[in-house]
């Protein structure tokens, strides 16, 4: 078992249960665009994916409509979405232990950086991380692969340092593969088990407790 020096965490569905606020904000944006959507399962698929990709894929919006949808979503989420976040049970304790062991913890999320930082501040988790790398408000959306590469570069992670990406969607695993690092896929988040298995992660964790065992296990 590899001991990791640097741990990149996805946010939504990995550290936090953020579904209610995200879905409400997506429904608000769609409603403003004249689209009524009550299928919650369909909207869950938006989580962890660049918004413009989801709006265009699921509702056949053109680029202008999709960008308007993003604007509406972000305004509503800024107003009401932050307070709907909750850390999964055991996550604060895990971050505290990893931090005490000297691990470098980084957030790598497609959520806009300012929103990610505000969520972490609200949950009193921000101080555990050396950096928060997310999407930009002035772009249509940044891929998870670009986010992970940027996080590794900005944090000056060297090849000698063992790094791992922890997330709940295939995009997290694909980004790790593309960046030459290991991945741990958590199955308690928003990605389906089939999606995660097909992405071929290095490890899987069915619970926060299993994630803790993978990240804190002694080398063998």
UniProtKB/TrEMBL annotation:
UniProt superkingdom: Bacteria
Q: Does the entry feature the keyword Hydrolase, yes or no?
A: yes
MF terms in GO: hydrolase activity; protein tyrosine kinase activity
Keywords assigned by UniProt, alphabetized: Hydrolase
Any single GO CC term annotated in Swiss-Prot or TrEMBL for this entry: cytosol
Do you know which InterPro entries this protein is assigned to?
Answer: HAD-like_hydrolase_sf, HAD-like_sf, HAD_2, HAD_sf, PGP-like_dom2
Protein name per its UniProtKB record: HAD family hydrolase
């Amino acid at each position: 078992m590899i001991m990791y020096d640097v741990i990149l965490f996805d946010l939504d569905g990995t550290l936090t249960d953020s579904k209610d606020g995200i879905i409400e904000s997506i429904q608000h944006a769609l409603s403003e665009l004249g689209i009524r959507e009550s299928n919650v399962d369909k909207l869950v698929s938006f989580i962890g994916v660049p918004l413009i990709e989801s709006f265009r894929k699921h509702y056949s919006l053109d680029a202008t409509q999709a960008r308007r949808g993003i604007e509406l979503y972000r305004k509503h989420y800024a107003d009401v979405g932050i307070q709907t976040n909750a850390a999964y049970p055991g996550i604060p304790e895990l971050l505290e232990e990893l931090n005490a062991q000297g691990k470098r913890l980084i957030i790598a999320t497609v959520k806009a950086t300012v929103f990610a930082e505000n969520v972490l501040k609200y949950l009193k988790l921000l101080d555990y991380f050396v950096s928060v790398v997310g999407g930009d408000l002035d772009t249509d959306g940044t891929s998870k692969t670009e986010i992970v590469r940027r996080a590794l570069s900005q944090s000056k992670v060297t090849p000698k340092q063992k790094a791992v990406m922890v997330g709940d969607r295939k995009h997290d695993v694909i980004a790790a593969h593309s960046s030459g690092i290991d991945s741990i896929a958590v199955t308690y988040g928003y990605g389906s088990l089939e999606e995660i298995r097909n992405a071929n992660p290095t490890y899987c964790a069915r619970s926060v407790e299993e994630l803790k065992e993978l990240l804190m296990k002694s080398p063998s």
